[in-house]
# Entry
Amino acid sequence: MINIQSLKTRRQKLANLINIPIVLWSGKSPSKNFRANHYPFRASSHFLYFAGLPIENAAIRLENGNLDLFMDNPHPDSTLWHGEMPTREDIALQIGADNAYPMEVLKDKIDGVATVPVQDTFTYQKQREILHRFLSINEEVKEIDHQLMKAIIALRLTHDEMALTEIKKAIDVSVEAHKIGIKSTKNSATEAEVRAAMEGYIISQNMTCAYNSIVTVNGEILHNETYNNELKSGDLLLADVGAETVLGWASDITRTWPVNGHFSSCQRDIYDIVLAAHDVCIEKIKPGIEYREIHLLGAKIIAEGLVNLGILKGNPETLLEKDAHAIFFPHGIGHLLGLDVHDMEDLGDLAGYKEGRTRSDRFGLGYLRLDRPLKSGMVVTIEPGFYQVPAILNNPKFQEKYYDDVNWETLKQFSDVRGIRIEDDILVTATGTEILTTNLPNKAEEIEEMMKRSR
Amino acid sequence: MINIQSLKTRRQKLANLINIPIVLWSGKSPSKNFRANHYPFRASSHFLYFAGLPIENAAIRLENGNLDLFMDNPHPDSTLWHGEMPTREDIALQIGADNAYPMEVLKDKIDGVATVPVQDTFTYQKQREILHRFLSINEEVKEIDHQLMKAIIALRLTHDEMALTEIKKAIDVSVEAHKIGIKSTKNSATEAEVRAAMEGYIISQNMTCAYNSIVTVNGEILHNETYNNELKSGDLLLADVGAETVLGWASDITRTWPVNGHFSSCQRDIYDIVLAAHDVCIEKIKPGIEYREIHLLGAKIIAEGLVNLGILKGNPETLLEKDAHAIFFPHGIGHLLGLDVHDMEDLGDLAGYKEGRTRSDRFGLGYLRLDRPLKSGMVVTIEPGFYQVPAILNNPKFQEKYYDDVNWETLKQFSDVRGIRIEDDILVTATGTEILTTNLPNKAEEIEEMMKRSR
# Structure
């Protein structure tokens, strides 16, 4: 599972980048109803990257490649409720800590340390209290914290072998979950039943969901987290579901398939456009290429496809320039993947955007989460889509702006295509790409074949 | 789903108990990795009780039976990501609010209001900021907050029809989940696979888990939340799994069954003792009886049973007085059930313990979560158990204290009985009890029969 040498290498690489002592907190599971009924614990990703294990209520201090662990031993009474828990010394050994101290010692070792604010508000308060200062990822952030964030980003942008092994483990489980989802659809009456089949498999493999699953016949609702619709013949079902390993590494996969096992001719036409965009984008990935170019390439393929279908009118390049494609493909082509499904998004755009770049105010670019030249060792998603979002199509502002670019009558024929997305996880390699999600079919006929066999 | 008249009745009853304006916050889903990757939202139970719907980032002000809703309308951009969201006016109508305001109005309406601190730290800070005071459930709490807590407890201790309908819905799904768990065991290799079958069913019914499931062959670890053990013939599998409805009402069920479908003779002997305690306790439940008496009755049945098996030595009454039963049954016989699985445990023991009573320091009573006379309309769990907890059995303090009470040699013969618990949910009625979890077998031979049929 964890390789101490790899962890030590990460710590040493950080020391090579930043010559300041660093303290990272793991966080604490938030209460749900009451303290004993809490959400499952999820350690801070920055902590996980250097500590390796999800240890609750812990902190690590990194300096010169050394790691000091701060955590309290389990309370003796807790063995009754939780069984024998590993002690501080056990954990220190497992993660290759150089020293290990009770938590109360930490306050004596925080002079001049840099940190990153954790997500859980309780621990965030503790961080502020012990460091006596404000913590933020914003511009007003303390200079050393900003330095630390940039150093961590430099490391986490590309993945080492231990990380890739974990990501691939997560992906393998997600791939199987998607196969199960596709095959289970024939015998499912609701979105919830397909979700259950997919998440059930993830749970059975002792993993968790890397994010709240999307399993919906309303794929046009991009972040739909309800599952109460019935499945009806003629619907497309969009499933964006990904597993996370015990050590916290994520996967992120989307497939869209027809509830009745057959794409209608309109659904198939649009599906093939989305898939073409997907394939062309992946083909183009290599070290050095700007991810924004990949996004614009995907957008162009979609625009071309929609022109060919008669949904958009005019020259694809011109349509692209005025963001007409974004009426139907309003989000970015993908994002970084790692310990977080949108890796390091807790740092805002610091990780996703190359220094000096900021979000575009263009409708077709503003939602792009990654705007950097790609590097060997990065893992990114490629996830083009087509959606008929009422909030866009019924918006007078868009209707007016794109009145002549859309063939609104033709569009009506495609009313059974509310949302399609195809998403795979891609490793940038020295020579090009490795598709990590390769065992999961994405061609329309393969999906239909898989559904047929499951009858 | 929700019945506005029932909600209005709850609000009026609260007004009859307390003549102070009240503000209750719903809370906010905590961040997991980053703000967009959050835990599923779970509204504060006190808010849910009077508002009826889990509305995120909302507050209600209650006075004289009237309810004012405070929430902001969804941001126009959010329709792109989340589809059409109900507006403040939609929600106000659904929950029968008398007035509805944007959140910023709340600060003008907080003079002299009482409140209850919410669980999520972010909203808790907001509460403190807007009220300009410290919030706590402890003795140093503000007097009006304490009055409010007592009034809410007086209401929530017993359940109205709307509540019971929801609890029964949750129970029905949990019952089916347990049946599926029992039947799936034959084809499962790990705890995780049985957990997946059970939680998968809950997910398929569009419900959530009311608490982190326990599905373990190490039933002696009372709050075991890991699922990585393989199932081995001869093991008992303990599953404590309960569903929660969309409106937040909980269920709580435990069954213990043999992995290979047959209780060994030792397992059966102990199982029958636990079941006898379970049955006798439920039989005894009626309005007016002290729950502590039920607990002690259960403990006595267990002590008697263990004496009959030769595991304990001596007079059961005497053993009970010196808490010798608690070596094997260290927790309480059960707790309140409602919107929370341990209902109102966010208020510490204010709800569980009758005014003026506090936790016993007796080993066999200190973990009792409920010490009140029962009333018609309460829902409680009855969950006796038998465990061989290493932290107890290997503790020299206990070994010495109970040296002569335990037949340590005989105990060794029962090494395949590490943990057994049988838990059902019971409604106290005017005439006695209604077992709400009645459709789920709990007799050893019924469980064996169910497993045989599932082969």
Remarks:
- Residues 161-184 of chain A form the longest helix (24 residues).
- Residues 182 and 355 of chain A are 41 Å apart (CA to CA).
- The domain at 4-156 of chain A is CATH 3.40.350.10 (Creatine Amidinohydrolase; Chain A, domain 1).
- Chain A has 15 helices and 16 strands.
